[in-house]
Amino acid sequence: NHLKKYFPIKGGVFKRTVGHVKAVDDISFKVKETETLSLVGESGCGKSTTGRTIMRLYEATDGEVILNGENIMELPKNKFRSLRRNIQMIFQDPFSSLNPRMKVRDLLLEPIMTHKLAGRKEALRMVEEMIETVGLSKEQLNRYPHEFSGGQRQRISIARALILKPKVVILDESVSALDVSIQSQILNLLIKLQKEFDLTYIFISHDLNVVKHLSDRVGVMYLGQMMELAETDVLYENPMHPYTQALLSAIPSLDVDEKKERIILQGDVPDPSDPPSGCPFRLRCPMAFDHCAKEKPSFLEKEEGHWVACHLFDERFEHQREKQQQPE
Ligand code: SF4
Ligand code: MG
Question: Could you tell me the keywords of this UniProt record (predicted)?
Answer without folding.
Answer: ATP-binding, Nucleotide-binding, Transport
